[in-house]
Amino acid sequence: MAKKSAIEKNNRRKALAARYAAKRAQLKAAAMDENLSLEERFKARLKLAELPRNSAPNRVRNRCEITGRPRAFYRKLKMSRIALREYGSRGQVPGLVKSSW
Question: CATH code for 63-101?
Fold first, then answer.
């Protein structure tokens, strides 16, 4: 089980990323728009830099929904390899059969 503080920090990052997503997209579009003057584009970049760092979506870490483990994460199932193996052995993952020989 991961530290609760790390899981909560990641949840805060998810919330911040969702809250600032529209504003960030608007500023990025303005910064990349070649029809605007260089000065306006630069202002958009400065505004983008003023946003909280944790509002960037790439700072959000994929974590297992069950254990909170940050590594060996299966996106499709939203769980780590360890949780997947455990749940698969119990037959709780539809379509998954754990092989044994």
Answer: 4.10.830.10
